[in-house]
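Session log. Operator J.P. requested a structure for one protein chain; no other inputs attached. Running the standard single-chain path with token output.
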Amino acid sequence: MKKTQKIVNNSISKTIKNETITYISKMNGEGVSNLHGLFISEVEKSLIAAVLTHLKGNVTKTASYLGINRGTLTKKIKEYGINT
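Structure written below.
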């Protein structure tokens, strides 16, 4: 892994960790369930939307960037209600 990638990955990891701690603290034990599913879907939705925006809505390139099949990406775009 390149040094730049390692720095970016550490930064993303720290950001997610800090936001998770903030979220849990604000919930104060109330309504916290299926945290894994909630975070996975929110991160996936945000990631897809960000890459689509960066690539000006190009679904084929976005699928390639994400390392997933174009059909899978199209399904997820519909599932999350992401505008392309």
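Operator note: The chain has four helices and no strands.
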